[in-house]
Write a structure and sequence with these properties.
Blueprint: H1 4-13, H2 17-26, E1 37-38, E2 42-45, E3 51-54, E4 58-60, E5 65-70, H3 78-90, E6 94-99, H4 100-105, H5 107-125, H6 130-136, H7 140-178
Parallel strand pairs: 5-6
Antiparallel strand pairs: 1-4, 2-3, 4-5
């Protein structure tokens, strides 16, 4: 039996047209400056001491986001996909599923949905929990430091959120008025 790395390489070689199109838009940090990996193995240790591997089509480690391009085969493996999704969600991952026709026919909407999820995940996951930090050290200076960190985090992420919202919502409305080319 081949290794998991060899299997991932083989899957990358046998990509569907929808996966190829989506990879074109996700690779090289093209989407919201986030690195995506293609056919990347994620593993868990089972209760029997074996390693179980799941290989999502696309994975962004920073956002803990999995993007799946579902072809016709997924119609026959719904139960497997459901169990797999439950395992990945238990690992703290968010899963987005798109069928191949949706990716091929409406790529812009798919990319907007992925970007929207990236923005929301990054925005809300970067707030430190001040209460946990205060409990670690019962010190007034620590709570003030946490409040400053939350404020700084908020302003930085607020800027990113506004920039993403402009790109997702405002530009598509205004762009046709000026017949401007799409900005990547």
């Amino acid at each position: 039996m081949s290794s998991i790395i060899e299997l991932c390489r083989e899957l990358r070689q046998r990509e569907t047209p929808a996966e190829k199109l989506l990879w074109f838009h996700l690779r090289n940090r093209r989407l919201f400056k986030h690195k995506f990996l293609r056919q990347y193995p994620i593993y868990i240790d089972s209760i029997h001491g074996k390693r179980l591997y799941y290989i999502p089509d696309f994975y962004c480690h920073k956002a803990k986001l999995v993007v799946e391009a579902d072809g016709p085969i997924h119609l026959y493996k719904k139960e497997y996909d459901k169990n797999r999704d439950e395992v990945l969600i238990s690992l703290g991952l968010k899963i987005l599923r798109f069928n191949n026709l949706q990716i091929l026919d409406d790529t812009k909407t798919v990319l907007r949905l992925i970007t929207k999820n990236l923005v929301l995940i990054i925005f809300f996951s970067s707030f430190p929990l001040a209460e946990e930090r205060v409990n670690e050290r019962s010190d007034v200076r620590v709570s003030k430091l946490c409040a400053m960190q939350i404020t700084n985090c908020f302003y930085h992420n607020y800027y990113l959120l506004i920039a993403a919202l402009i790109n997702i919502i405002v530009l598509p409305i205004i762009r046709p008025l000026f017949h401007a080319p799409i900005i990547n």
